[in-house]
Amino acid sequence: MPDTTRTAESDPTKTMDEPTGSTSSSSAHEVSPHLEPKPASETPSTETIFDCRNVDVLYSGKLAVAEVTAPLMKREITALIGPSGCGKSTFLRCLNRMNDLIPGAEVRGEIIYHGQDLYAKDVDPVQVRKHIGMVFQKPNPFPKSIYENIAFGPRIVGMKGDMDEIVENALKRASLWDDVKDRLKDNAFGMSGGQQQRLCIARALAVEPDVLLMDEPCSALDPISTNRIEDLMLEIKEQYSIVIVTHNMQQAARVSDKTAFFTVDLSAGESNRVGRLVEHDVTEKIFTQPEDKRTEEYVTGKFG
């Protein structure tokens, strides 16, 4: 295992004024050339977007996730599944350095993105979160108008172009434009839960990220809203790489191309629960012919 160690960010100026992973409030550092996404026409769908090598996560010195090694592919939906407490969300947050914002968090190993280690000393985590956006479990619109929710990120990162067009395009990509085009000045809190979640997706897409991370994005939604979010994921994967944490195995089977199964390991002598990656493969194989018995027992409902 590489002996490089990364500790949590302590500089509060590198956090956001408002809670979203893709619209960070600082752009003082230029993006490393290695972090610039390649044009879609030059990027085959078989390209590895994240190469995770022996990734450990510790909180206050205690191991929480251990030895995760897996490639995540470009323009695919990768689902992270497993029982509660197995480290799915912890690992997801490693992919855009959101764990940096948690006191006492420490990441070891390597996460290679477009040829560069995301945790190298010269990489600005603020710029990482611009390219790798996140949508959280519960919709978290800002206390602003629908329009201002979308415009906030592009303004912060200094995007050029007509703001009305940027807002409209983001809402269209999130399949929300027709619902809200006549009430853009209304407060976002007046939207339904499903609309708020799609607004958060549109807000993340507005800054033109390369990757979209989604942490249980449908857990607080009704079945109809869930279906719309799933349809949206399938539509936008032609342009974005998506990694989703979900407890819903049917959802993982419906939308993902690859699935990674995590479990909690209590047999390695640790005094605390440690999440470990058991198996990562094509989704159909994970659900029909898994190689590990633990995977089979989980997807067939024997535990979890």
Would you kindly provide a written description of the structure presented here, covering whatever features stand out?
It holds the Pfam family ABC_tran. Residues 1-47 are annotated as: Disordered. Residues 1-17 have a biased composition (Basic and acidic residues). Keywords: ATP-binding, Nucleotide-binding, Translocase, Transport. The chain starts with a strand and ends in a 5-residue tail after the last helix. The radius of gyration is 19 Å and the shape is globular. Helix 7 links the parallel strand 8 and strand 9. It has ten helices and eleven strands. The protein has a single domain (5-11, 18-299), classed as P-loop containing nucleotide triphosphate hydrolases (Rossmann fold, 3-Layer(aba) Sandwich), CATH 3.40.50.300. The protein has 304 residues and is of the alpha/beta class. Residues 1-5 and 7-44 have low confidence and may be disordered. Strands 1, 2, 3, 4, 5, 6, 7, 8, 9, 10 and 11 form an eleven-stranded mixed beta sheet that branches.
